[in-house]
Design goal:
Number of domains: 4
CATH topology of the largest domain: Jelly Rolls
Structural class: mainly beta
Protein name: Pectinesterase catalytic domain-containing protein
Shape: flat
Number of helices: 4
Oligomer: single chain
CATH architecture of the largest domain: Sandwich
Signal peptide: 1-20
Keywords: Signal
Largest sheet: 20 strands, mixed
CATH class of the largest domain: Mainly Beta
CATH superfamily of the largest domain: Exo-inulinase, domain 1
InterPro entries: Pectin_lyas_fold
Radius of gyration: 32 Å
Distance between the termini: 92 Å
Number of strands: 67
């Protein structure tokens, strides 16, 4: 008989971190091994083809003696057999740290062909159970320590499990790429993190149904990934640590605890979304905490937040007007909390509403969390064994507690309708949790009193609603049509109700370009209408008086006709053409008419200061225009050679930039924003030789934590100065996300030679690259300098004191005679983009 004692230390309820913890020692004797069976807490567990014992302390020679005993998860996974719901395949795991991917292997992990990410271990097994042999899940750790750009190309994922019925109990699943692994039971198993920068380091993909985790810890930071992709999923008494884009978006979290280290733990939720029941959320986010970057429903029931530096909790930064989220008994630091108070339309408070019974009810004076209603699906699944209480309460009250829908949808969610021309049928759908559709009954359709003159609602027997627009005013009106049930479910559609449109106005006076002021051209015309003019006007440079080879240079936006065009040095030698589509608020744009100024632009026609250029982004064309021509902006998408290892291609099938409002950190601000990965913007001034030069602008990244870009996969923005932009020779300031920090960006001075950039300064890591970062780059003689600061008091504290809050860089250079400007952005767009505004370019003699 082989018997061993395992020395355990009982944790004081604290999770792993890089800081020192206090522990209390105790001798643990609840586990005994007898070759073909184990005793755990006095219970005999027979080993066999569907019951393996795994102990990392045992040598290869020891485990070789027994057919169902292993010392690694990886080796055990090679011998799995499918289990069933009544007899699962069980891995009984002794306390230890089990690496599913060798942390000492220097080889970079890359995805296999056809896989989106590199996996540490792939398992195909029906009804597989990970059973930790300690009530403290911190004693049994299944680990990896790789992430995006840190030991892997792609978002490294520890496990890919295929099969229904996966479950885990008394386990820690941890990706220790960005945090230290501390294992007090055997400090020799401790391991330092790969790096401080928070990168995508994921845990588990799952395609299965009926997934359960109990008393299990999920530890990582960015993109945690606890059973991503699973269908009906229950987390019971689990703990989660994460930053953004982390949680399972279609799960029930019961009696769980969370440490939020960033503001958006969900990227989105799917289908009927996620539910929090009796949970505790400890948020380390400063100022504002949200749940989602994107859309999807969430319900919070008996959920408690605790925080030190938080002043607002919302569902997402700007919820869709048709979105609805549900809450009951939510608190922040023991005080009642209404989530999303700034967007109160999106929050449904369930107090005293029957919908609350879908999540909780009282049975014999005790609170019962109705996981049976949430998870039963169509096969009566009851992982928490509460069905009998649900049935008893139904018998007692005569109410339904087991078939209560939790989601009401309306399709379509947005539509534009013209009065006298269009109509729309809104279709409701009801779903039980888990995306099980039920018949739509008891649907009430309403609009608030201020909308009633703009639409007529006709409710059909099938519960659909016919919307007939009746807007008799001149302006388009936004109308919210709300659907609801007597239980308290809500949904909405956002409709834009136009008045009856008329034909575009005719020209009373035909359009003509006039030179009414020195240095300015004006498009003169008169339309037959009594409305405010909203005509669409675009200006072009052409090579001749016939309008050949037109290049768009300036456009109307925001319903403001651009009647006046300021001449610049770039216009010299060209003919100026204007195109106008007549429009007002009661019509669609009419057919475009073009007119060309009779004279070619001469140097004497230009009156503005040729030494200073301040582009008006509100009217500057954002069209794809790849030609490098003096006096023109060149806009395209380009993949620099130093990003080739990440295997992406520039997309020039659409305009690479757009003018408008940014998102996330750039929300509420307008400027030029990247529309495609690799967006590039260049300007070649008119002239043969240029002296000193200065560029200043304000950058507004969508990212707010200081990292600037979505990942450290060669994602950067180069701002070129004194550039030959056709051949890409000159100098630049590079802002790049690295693996060093997740809350700071590196600033580096670069030299370009034939499109190849090399650093000519040491990098400076700074925390100032957040919304409204002011950047100045200047060349005087043989000195290149760059300065960056933020008007807000941002600072990321680091132990090594290598992160600054203000950038000052300098390098000696070889002067050149170029005068071009360039922006090259290789990062992701959307939440990884940067809005550019207040750009000013100066040239000195």
């Amino acid at each position: 008989m082989y018997r061993y004692l395992i020395l355990f230390l009982t944790f004081l309820g604290l999770s792993f971190s890089s800081s020192a913890q206090s522990y209390k020692g105790d001798l643990y004797q609840d586990l005994e091994f007898y070759g073909d069976y184990i005793l755990y807490k006095g219970k005999e567990i027979k080993l066999g083809s569907n019951a393996f014992f795994i102990d990392g302390q045992m040598s290869d020679a020891e485990v070789a003696k027994y057919p169902f005993v292993f010392n690694s998860i990886v080796e055990a996974s090679k011998h799995l057999n499918d289990g069933t719901e009544s007899s699962p395949m069980v891995l009984y795991i002794a306390p230890w740290v089990y690496w599913v991917d060798d942390p000492d292997d220097p080889e970079i992990r890359i995805p296999k062909p056809g896989n989106p990410v590199p996996f540490g271990l792939e398992i195909s097994c029906e009804w597989l159970r990970f059973q930790g042999l300690s009530e403290n899940p911190e004693h049994i750790i299944i680990a990896s320590n790789r992430g995006q750009t840190m030991g892997a190309k792609g978002n490294f994922t520890m496990l890919n499990i295929k099969g229904d019925g996966t479950s885990a109990e008394n386990i820690t699943f941890g990706n220790y790429c960005n945090l230290d692994l501390v294992y007090p039971l055997n400090p020799k198993l401790n391991r330092k993190k790969r790096g401080s920068a928070i990168v995508q380091a994921q845990l588990i993909f799952s395609n299965g149904d009926k997934v359960v985790a109990r008393n299990t810890r999920f530890i990582s930071r960015l993109n945690l990934g606890p059973f991503w992709g699973s269908k009906r999923t229950l987390f019971d008494g689990c703990h989660f640590e994460m930053t953004d884009d982390a949680l399972n978006g279609s799960a029930v979290y019961l009696n769980c605890s969370f440490d939020f280290y960033s503001s958006k733990p969900f990227y989105r939720t799917d289908g009927t979304g996620s539910v929090f029941l009796n949970c505790d959320i400890n948020t380390f986010t400063q100022n504002t905490q949200y749940f989602c970057k994107s859309r999807g429903p969430i319900a919070l029931v008996d959920t408690r937040f605790s925080a030190k530096e938080l002043n607002y909790i919302g569902w997402r930064d700007i919820p869709d007007k048709e979105a609805r989220y549900y809450q009951y008994n939510v608190s922040l630091n023991d005080k009642p909390l209404f989530v999303g108070e700034k967007d109160a339309y999106a929050t449904v408070e369930m107090t005293d509403k029957p919908i609350l019974n879908a999540y909780r009810f009282q049975y014999n004076s005790h609170i019962v969390y109705n996981t049976y209603n949430l998870l039963r699906g169509n096969d009566d699944w009851d992982p928490m064994k509460v069905k009998y209480m649900v049935n008893k309460e139904e018998e007692k009250s005569g109410k339904d507690y087991s078939n209560i829908p939790t989601l009401l949808e309306v399709k379509p969610t947005q539509k534009t309708l013209e009065t006298g021309k269009d109509s729309l049928v809104l279709t409701p759908k009801l779903f039980r949790f888990g995306n099980f559709e039920v018949d739509s009954k008891d649907i009430q359709w309403t609009v608030s009193s201020e909308y009633k003159s703009y639409v007529q609602l006709i409710v059909k027997e099938d519960q659909t609603c016919l919307v007939v627009p009746t807007n008799q005013e001149d302006e388009t009106k936004e109308v919210i049509v709300k659907a609801s049930t007597s239980s308290g479910l809500e949904a909405a559609a956002v409709l834009y109700i136009k008045p009856s449109f008329i034909n575009p106005p005719d020209f009373i006076v035909a359009p003509k370009i006039q030179n009414i002021k020195p240095g300015k051209l004006s498009l003169h015309y008169k339309l037959d209408m009594n409305f405010e003019d909203e005509s669409l006007i675009s200006w072009y440079r052409c090579v001749d008086e016939k309008g050949n080879q037109p290049i768009e240079i300036s456009v109307s936006r925001l319903n403001n006709p651009l009647r006046t065009y300021d001449l610049s040095v770039g216009d010299i030698g060209y003919y100026i053409m204007a195109s106008i589509q007549p429009k007002h608020l009661r019509c669609y744009p009419g057919k475009a008419r073009t007119v060309i100024f009779k004279n070619k632009i001469k140097p004497s026609d230009v009156k503005n200061n040729q030494q200073v250029l301040i582009p008006n982004f509100e009217t500057m064309s954002a069209k794809y225009q790849p030609q490098v021509i003096p006096g023109f902006w060149s806009l395209d998408s380009y993949a620099p050679a130093d990003t080739n290892e990440y295997n992406w291609q520039a997309d020039n099938s659409k305009d690479p930039w757009y003018y408008g409002e940014g998102i996330n950190g750039a929300a509420g601000t307008k400027g030029f924003v990247q529309n495609t990965k690799g967006a590039r913007m260049r300007y070649q001034p008119v002239g043969e030789s240029f002296g000193d030069m200065k560029i200043s602008f304000t950058a507004v990244p969508s990212k707010t934590a200081g990292q600037g870009f979505s990942s450290a996969r060669a994602q950067y923005m180069d701002i070129g100065i004194k550039m030959d932009v056709k051949n890409m020779n000159g100098y630049a300031l590079r802002l790049i996300r690295t693996t060093k920090y997740s809350d700071a960006t590196d600033f580096i001075l670069m030299k370009y030679e034939s499109g190849v950039a090399q650093a000519i300064s040491q990098p400076i890591s700074a925390s100032c690259y957040r919304p409204n970062c002011k950047i100045t780059i200047e060349i005087k003689g043989n000195k290149l300098t760059a300065h960056a600061e933020n008007t807000k008091d941002y600072f990321a504290s680091h132990k090594d004191n290598t992160v600054v809050n203000e950038v000052n860089l300098q390098a000696e250079i070889k002067p050149n005679t170029y005068g071009g400007l360039s922006f090259q952005h290789t990062g992701s767009v959307g939440s990884g983009a940067t809005l550019i505004k207040n750009l000013k370019i100066e040239w000195y003699d």
